[in-house]
């Protein structure tokens, strides 16, 4: 019931409907979105809040939601055409996105209404396809208590900085008197989009209203400057105090963008540029018997990595590029254990930042950033049999192939999982086989699957 097209199911065809039924196992701040190509970029997305069944482990009086989105005047396809054309300027005309907060132009979003003395849980969700968002409430203190659906020990910060797909909950206690009103500051930016007055970054100033008519307290300190403290996931600790897992297997992944034999510059992980199989990878895992352990049956471009049931996997993800990549792993929360400098293709004039680790009680989350010329290490236990994508959550990078597929415990899957007929029907009505290898054939016969573009090592 995870949703990604050609991974766990066939997409819902136009004019059809499908009901997702699943046991909710995790409370927290989530969102849902179309997961076929660039559907998220074109707006198929919405917040999804899961409340605790029992008492919430952090105390607050009320909660407020701020959902952040980027919005462009062109469709994804129109924008991609301009962005990927090396003869066109970057960003393309109108390429500076607009920012939406709670679904409307962020300049017109309803104020946050505070009552004196109450503690609010602000749920923050960045549903953008491309842009980062920062939030601060000058004159108030924030305490981080949740990251991507995982509670953390409360930690005081001045601001939150979210990549696409990341979420946070912060507690804010209102002042005890309602003599003044305040403002919040939401800044939309992307580390790779050049500044342009009023366009990048785009700043949205919203009201924090205690009493209408009361004077506003203007921000005295500069956001992001001096001692300003952003939330930093490597410094957070899981509330349940789960220690760093002992690693059974370490997997090195290198992110990149290179020239391929098609003449295009494509994104890749370990030189393989992702493309969807014909038969969803999960159905291949279920129907190929012993061969389900052979990564080749999933096809070359779906880039299957087979995980053994219950092994603790460490991913060491290197980013020898100038852009940060926000990577989302499906099916797991993972521990954030280390950031450090990559040793791959580093320009001579680059100043390496030091290694930072959290191998005591790390925070868990489901979307992590690999900054430029850094690596990030994460750990998780392969205790959720399935087929789970790892992919960049900037839509353009996902579309260009920065993704792979973890095939987790196919033996356990084959013993325990039965796909509902209504889900298989989504494939049948589209003439897609629900068994066999990536091409819907026996063994290693891939007739019908387009050939994988070849990696060309040296870019012109
Ligand atoms: Cu990316």
UniProtKB/TrEMBL annotation:
SUPFAM superfamilies: Cupredoxins. Residues 1-54, 63-187, 277-411 form the Plastocyanin-like domain. It comes from the Eukaryota. Keywords: Copper, Metal-binding, Oxidoreductase. The keyword Oxidoreductase applies. GO terms for molecular function: copper ion binding; oxidoreductase activity. It holds the Pfam family Cu-oxidase. Belongs to the multicopper oxidase family. This is Ferroxidase fet3. It comes from Coemansia thaxteri.
């Amino acid at each position: 019931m995870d949703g990604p097209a050609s991974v766990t199911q066939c997409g819902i065809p136009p004019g059809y409907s499908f009901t997702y039924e699943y046991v909710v196992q995790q409370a927290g701040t989530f969102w849902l979105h179309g997961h076929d190509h660039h559907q998220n970029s074109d707006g198929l997305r919405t917040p999804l809040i899961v409340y605790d069944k029992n008492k919430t482990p952090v105390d607050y009086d009320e909660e407020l939601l701020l959902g952040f989105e980027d919005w462009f005047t062109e469709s994804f396809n129109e924008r991609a055409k301009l962005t990927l054309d090396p003869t066109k300027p970057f960003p393309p005309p109108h390429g500076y996105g607009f920012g939406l907060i709670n679904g409307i132009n962020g300049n017109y979003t309803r104020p946050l209404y505070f009552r004196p003395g109450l503690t609010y849980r602000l749920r923050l969700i960045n549903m953008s396809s491309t842009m980062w968002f920062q939030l601060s409430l000058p004159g108030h203190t924030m305490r981080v208590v949740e990251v991507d659906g995982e509670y953390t020990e409360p930690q005081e910060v001045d601001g939150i900085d979210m990549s696409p797909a990341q979420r946070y909950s912060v507690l804010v206690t209102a002042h005890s008197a309602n003599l003044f009103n305040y403002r919040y500051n939401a800044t939309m930016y992307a580390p790779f989009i050049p500044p342009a007055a009023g366009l990048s970054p785009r700043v949205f100033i919203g009201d924090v209203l205690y009493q209408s008519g009361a004077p506003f307290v203007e921000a005295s300190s500069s956001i992001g400057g001096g001692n300003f403290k952003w939330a930093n996931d490597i410094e957070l600790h899981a509330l349940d105090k789960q220690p760093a897992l002992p690693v059974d297997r370490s997997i090195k992944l290198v992110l990149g963008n290179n020239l391929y034999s098609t003449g295009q510059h494509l994104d890749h992980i370990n030189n393989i540029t992702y493309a969807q199989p014909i038969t969803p990878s999960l159905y291949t895992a279920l129907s190929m018997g012993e061969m389900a352990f052979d990564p080749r049956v999933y096809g070359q471009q779906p880039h299957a990595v087979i995980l053994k049931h219950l092994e603790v996997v460490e991913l060491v993800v290197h980013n020898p590029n100038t852009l940060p990549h926000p990577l989302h792993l499906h099916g797991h929360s993972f521990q954030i254990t280390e950031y450090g400098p990559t040793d791959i293709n580093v320009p001579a004039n680059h100043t390496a930042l030091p290694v930072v680790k959290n191998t005591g009680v790390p925070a868990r989350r489901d979307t992590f950033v690999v900054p430029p010329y850094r690596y990030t290490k994460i750990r998780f236990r392969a205790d959720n049999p399935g087929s789970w994508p790892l992919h960049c959550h900037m839509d353009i990078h996902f579309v260009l192939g920065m993704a792979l597929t973890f095939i987790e415990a196919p033996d356990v899957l084959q013993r325990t999982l039965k796909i509902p007929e209504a889900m298989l029907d989504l494939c049948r009505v589209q003439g897609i086989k629900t068994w066999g290898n990536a091409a819907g054939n026996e063994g290693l016969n891939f007739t019908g699957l387009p050939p994988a573009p070849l990696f060309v090592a040296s870019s012109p």
